[in-house]
Amino acid sequence: MNMVEEIFVGGGGAGYAEKQYLKLKYANRHGLIAGATGTGKTVTLQILAESFSAQGVPVFMADVKGDLSGLAKAGSETGKLHAPFMDRNATIGFDDFAYGAFPVTFWDLFGEQGHPVRTTVAEMGPLLLSRLLELSEAQEGILNIAFRLADEDGLPLLDLADLRAMLVWIGENRADLQLRYGNISTASIGAIQRRLLVLENQGGSGFFGEPALDLRDLMRVGQDGRGQVNILAADTLMASPRLYSTFLLWLLSELFEELPEVGDPDKPKLVFFFDEAHLLFDGAPKALVDKVEQVARLIRSKGVGVFFITQNPDDIPEDILGQLGNRVQHALRAFTARDKKALRMAAETYRPNPDFDTETAIREVGVGEAVTSFLEKKGIPGIVQRTLIRPPSSQLGPITKSERAEVLDLSDLHVRYAETVDRHSAYEMLKERAEAAAKAAAEAEQREEEMEAAEREYQAGRRYSGTRVGRSTSKPVRRPQKSFGEQMGDMVVKELTGTTGRRLVRGILGSLFKAR
Predict the structure, then answer these.
(1) Angle at the Cα of 244 (from 239 to 247), degrees rounded to 5?
(2) Three-state SS sequence of 159-211
(3) Residue with the larger pLDDT of the pair 490 and 471
(4) Which of 157, 299, 301, 325 has CB 3.0 to 4.6 Å from 29, enough for a Cys bridge?
(5) Which residues 6+ apart lie within 8 Å of 396 measured at CB?
(6) 70 against 284, higher pLDDT
(7) Other beta carbons less than 10 A from residue 185's beta carbon
(8) What is the C-alpha separation between 203 and 446, in angstroms, rounded?
(9) 465 C-beta neighbours (distance < 10 Å), count
(10) Is 489 helix (H, G, I), strand (E, B) or coil?
(11) CATH class of domain segment(s) 27-118+210-417
(12) Are 350 and 384 in contact (CB under 8 A)?
């Protein structure tokens, strides 16, 4: 495979840029793909994924509409969706175009259309979990207490059952804990438990468990030198938009925490496409947005490029939008005063071209056309250009269920992620402590009863001999003060009778930092 320093995005004829390239060395400076529904964002996403893969760069993308599975199959000039592109290659000067399939790995949080994606409650951390559960500030505080206690006592929180046990224990012992952590309301604990129930009903409980996703499985390069295209099935997931956005944010934070610093590589180690990016910021507290901005700014040095895909650039906070150096802007429609304002603001973020008015161009470009700007030498934004987007080499539109199943069966990751592993975790540890505590309590009670029986027998014997019996001077038997673990064990007895002890380190978004 011939290594090039840039990937071809598109070009055009009269009134359009001759050719537009995205330089690989600047691909980790992040990017934006924006435009109204039906203007060609999915095709742009597809051709970028193809181009990165061809140059040995793995990509991760969410398939929101179910269309991107076509990357696993070669396109065809007889396909009806490819027909509009038949004459475009000559127009834009794409001389070495060829149809072809790309190495694809399918993933699915629900395990139905791809390999299951899992993480543990501990790895997600309290900040992201609070966002996922839509908790209030007070409820988030209690969740932080649960994580702190579990971390300090070496109790792995792997699934939601572990978290529930911790919350119940906190409720049972809130009087003592309030001296250390402040007010703990049983109403807030109950609200968290209800939110956990809602998450389970939405199918989110399967996301928490093991085996957890190994990031190295997202960054594979095949023997032919092409990067793996990782596609997350998100058409069903979009019914739970908070779960979708929180998962992608968690994945981004995991990449940030685990990958080593590489500076400015010749090409990215991974390109991450964040579709429906507005879901990440809708209703997000400022503290979380600030964290996302920090990750976006710093993850570049880990060799990761992040492309946000959304309908309107206005969906992205200004501080984050300013970091997106490579841009493909499809058409925006302006029918209302708010639309016109958003269009004007979008145009103002580009380096102007004296040959045309940017605002007018964004409004007038057709389907499969865009105004583009890519970073040039020394990372300077290029002048905005009108561009015809190149056609994809892979199939436009989804593959069949049988074709998807064939790709999954051939994947060497099937064995690794197919079965859930129920590792010895907090639930089992607490159960064992509960049984030990119950046994110790029963034995202590039995000894006390035996001592009381012996004393009664002794006193009865003295009374029989006619000797006056005085007040006993023996001290009453007291149970020893229970440790934290024994108290937690008692809690689990009530519920069921129905890592090590080291301090854990958490990263910028609250997820566990795993040193390698």
Answers:
(1) 155
(2) CHHHHHHHHHHHHHCHHHHHHHHCCCCHHHHHHHHHHHHHHHHCCHHHHECEC
(3) 490
(4) 325
(5) 43, 46, 67, 70, 75, 79, 81, 82
(6) 70
(7) 15
(8) 47
(9) 7
(10) helix
(11) alpha beta
(12) yes
Measure the CA–CA gap between 490 and 503, rounded to whole angstroms: 24
Of 405, 396, 402, the C-alpha closest to 49 is 396
Query: If residue 336 lies in a helix (H) or strand (E), which one and from where to where?
Result: none
- 280-304: burial string, b at 16+ Cβ within 10 Å, e else: bbeebeeebeebbbebbeebbbbbb
Q: How far is CA 274 from the centre of its chain?
A: 10
Closest CA to 153 of 502, 475, 510, 409: 502
Whether the Cβ atoms of residue 492 and residue 433 lie closer than 8 Å to each other: yes
Q: Which amino acid is at 286?
A: K
| DSSP state for residue 70 in the 8-state scheme | G
Residue ranges covered by each domain of the chain: 27-118+210-417
pLDDT in tens, 9-67: 998 766 677 789 999 999 999 999 999 989 999 999 999 999 999 999 999 999 998 89
The string of pLDDT tens digits covering residues 497-516 is 444 334 455 666 666 555 44
Read off the pLDDT of each residue in 363-385 and give the average, rounded to a whole number: 92
Q: Roughly what angle, to the nearest 10 degrees, separates helices 484-496 and 160-172? A: 110
Provide the whole-model pTM.
Answer: 0.83
Nearest to 103 by CA among 242, 221, 192, 11: 221
Please give the residue that has the higher pLDDT: either 139 or 484: 139
Looking at residue 489, what is its pLDDT?
A: 55
Tokens coding 12: 């055009």
| Structure tokens, 97 | 């175009």
Residue 316: strand, helix, or coil: coil
Tell me how far apart the alpha carbons of residues 284 and 187 are, in angstroms, rounded to a whole number.
Answer: 24
Mean pLDDT of 229-251: 90
The half-sphere exposure of 374 on its side-chain side, counting CA atoms within 13 A, is: 20
Q: What is the CA radius of gyration of the chain?
A: 30
What's residue 270's pLDDT? 97
Q: How confident is the model at residue 41, as a pLDDT?
A: 94
Q: 370 exposed, middle or buried (CB, 10 Å; 0-12, 13-18, 19+)?
A: buried
pLDDT at res. 395: 93
SS3 content of the chain, % helix, strand, coil (to 5): 45, 15, 40
Average pLDDT over residues 322-336: 91
- Find where tokens 């989110």 sit: 204
Secondary structure element (H or E) that encloses residue 67, with its range = none
Mind listing the pLDDT tens digit for each residue in 127-146? Answer: 899 989 999 999 999 999 99
